[in-house]
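Chain A, query sequence.
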Amino acid sequence: MSAIKRFQRGRDVTAITIIPQDVSAAGALTATSFSGFNAGGSLLGRCDGITIRNRLNSEVIMSVDDVLVNNVPITEEYSIEVREILTQKTGSGGIAASATDYEPMLPRLFNERDSGTGASKWDYFKITVTKGGKSYTIYGLKQELNDNVQGSGKQVASMTLLPVNVNFDGSGAASLAYA
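Chain A, predicted structure.
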């Protein structure tokens, strides 16, 4: 029987952080800080799962008299979904001590609003995952948040990010990096 590789086991995730990114006047993404519960951005111990979806987009290019479809690859894309087990920071007996004690990270980051304009405060994020001794860094634009309430079992929120080109100098650096 063969051994399961370390990178395939969830228990070998040793770090996962999600940090909001500000966009500078020059268009560069830079890390920003946020205050409150879990200000360091770590989801370790509360991450229910991470899914990276790769997709090759194609276009059908064929002459009018062809009878077989001819798909030609045009772009490659991916998305990442991070799932958080919703928790509270204080309280006992499964009940938060106050309404402010229930502060899950993903819904807060996704929905945070600028106090002056009311616009979304952060649209871009940097996710770093260390799993099985390898690190993955992903820069993405928020696409979707699912914050579900269930009658039983754990409560989970998920955030999906789409890739962004973090290198605006035209070199086309990938937004998904493996180290």
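The beta strands are 13-23, 29-31, 47-60, 71-85, 124-131, 134-147, 156-163, 176-178. The first helix runs from residue 105 to 111.
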